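Suppose you are handed a protein chain with no further information: no name, no annotation, nothing but its sequence. What can you learn? This example shows the usual starting point.
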Amino acid sequence: MSVENFFSKEEKKQITDAIAEAEKNTSGEIRLHMEGHCTIDVLDRAAYIFGKLKMLETAQRNGVLFYLAVHDHKFAILGDAGINQLVPANFWDEIKETMLAYFKEGKFTDGLAKGILMAGEQLKANFPFHKDDVDELMNEISFDKNI
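A reasonable first move is to predict its three-dimensional structure. Written in structure tokens, the prediction is:
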């Protein structure tokens, strides 16, 4: 199965709707990138994808990448420097653990949507939404062939 078809059209909409909902609470920018395989350290790969998706270019350096290597059962959450300067080192751990519990049950869509919404809530404290905020990054899911 190709990575683009891992989620149904409805599941993709549930995920992108979660991104839009999470971003209503924060000026932070959230993306999901999916690949089939990750043959290197998952955080190293996520950092590479973060750069390829131009997530380093947000005004407040407050982008968050959810990275998923479907066939290798690997995932990572990576925040930009603006976030990491303000939050404790274990900031993403609760979100990862929550997502992992869903993933172990085969509920990948629900796990991603829940993690994305949790990230939006966490980001709200340091990066609240302002009426003049601009959506700097697209909310669509990106795939390995698209970058």
